[in-house]
Automatic annotation (TrEMBL):
Pfam families: Lactamase_B. This is Zn-dependent hydrolase. InterPro entries: Metallo-B-lactamas, Mito_Persulfide_Diox, POD-like_MBL-fold, RibonucZ/Hydroxyglut_hydro. It comes from the Bacteria. GO terms for molecular function: hydrolase activity. Keywords: Hydrolase, Metal-binding. Residues 12-171 form the Metallo-beta-lactamase domain.
Length: 249
């Protein structure tokens, strides 16, 4: 397997490139529109052909690169089925494998950050999106989020995986790149160390996070698989805006 972890600094988003060396096919998990030139350059450098983008959920802090990548490469767009996005080519569902040449990804429905959130499991790697971050988790107060659902998603589904399973998050704001299920079970201050659901719900209720600055632009744009908002300043439209601060919690 060919693997690259790519970082977009405006929203502190990790995009993951996965390639099948046997077929030259590749996919991107959570691409960001600001970084599609970089992503296409890396694919070209590696001699890979982009066939699919996968978003873990409808993002609130950046615009996905899915639509523009499809326009430029002919790839398909995969999004969680329950989000019912007409622009998607592949409706992602738990229990339905996603194949990339000789590689097979498993989608895991992990609601809580959003109701449609999915993580992706491939061999020793788990791509957790915003459901499980390194020593943290995504916020649960918007987009049909639920602290109770997120607790059950992480502790009942993700923490059931082997301790050595590598955790690759959707974001990190401190420069960390990878964790493991064992580490998060032991050290995650919100979800680890045997915290109860009631304790977790109390923690999330007490965060008092500010309203995300980009959400009112990002969510409508991402429901169209990555349409840049029309009400941003003209000089920023090519980048879909400098997202400013929109920490996911």
């Amino acid at each position: 397997m060919i693997f690259r972890q790519l970082f977009e600094p405006l929203s502190s988003t990790y995009t993951y490139l996965i390639g099948c060396p046997a077929t030259g096919q590749a996919l991107l998990i959570d691409p960001v529109v600001n970084s599609i030139d970089r992503d296409l350059a890396v694919l070209h450098e590696l001699g890979l052909r982009l066939v699919l983008t996968l978003d873990t959920h409808i993002h609130a802090d950046h615009i996905t690169g899915a639509l523009h990548l499809r326009e430029r490469s002919g790839c398909r767009i995969g999004t969680p089925a329950m989000d019912r996005l007409p622009c998607a080519d592949l409706a992602v569902e738990e229990g339905v494998p996603i194949t990339l040449g000789s590689l097979t990804l498993q989608a895991l429905h992990t609601p809580g950050h959003t109701d449609g959130h999915h993580a992706y499991l491939l061999g020793e790697r788990l791509f957790t999106g915003d459901a499980l971050l390194i020593e943290g988790c995504g916020r649960t107060d918007f987009q049909n989020g639920s602290a109770a659902d997120l607790y059950r998603s992480v502790t009942g589904k993700l923490f059931a995986l082997p301790d050595e399973q590598l955790v690759y998050p959707g974001h990190d704001y401190q420069g960390r790149r990878v964790s493991s299920i064992g580490q998060e079970k032991a050290r995650n201050p919100r979800l680890g160390a045997g915290r109860s659901q009631a304790e977790f719900e109390q923690i999330m209720a007490g965060l008092n996070l500010p309203y995300p600055k980009f959400i009112d632009h990002a969510v409508p744009g991402n429901r169209q698989c990555g349409v840049c908002p029309t009400d941003l300043p003209e000089q920023l439209q090519a980048y879909c805006g400098r997202m400013t601060e929109s920490v996911q919690g």
